[in-house]
C-alpha cells in the first residue's frame, strides 16, 4: 500500500456540491433575515448570529481535522521529517 493511497481524496464533484450547498444555505439565511418583518436591530442580531455560526462551524471542522491528522500514522511520520526540513532551511544561504 503506497502512502498516496492511504490518504482519502475528495472528488471534484463532491467539492462542487459542498460549495453550492454552502452558497445556497448562506444566501437563503441572508434572504430570510432580510425579509423578516423585524426592526433593524433584530435583523442585525440574526445576521450576526448566523455569521458567528458559520465561522464557528469552520473552526470546529478545522480543529476536528487537525486532531484526526495528528493521530494518524502518516501525520506522526511526516511531522519529524517536516521539522527537520524547517530546521535545515536557511533562506539567507546563497544558492549554487
From TrEMBL:
InterPro entries: YiaA-like, YiaAB. This is YiaA/YiaB family inner membrane protein. Keywords: Membrane, Transmembrane, Transmembrane helix. Residues 14-66 form the YiaAB two helix domain. The chain crosses the membrane at residues 12-35, 41-61.
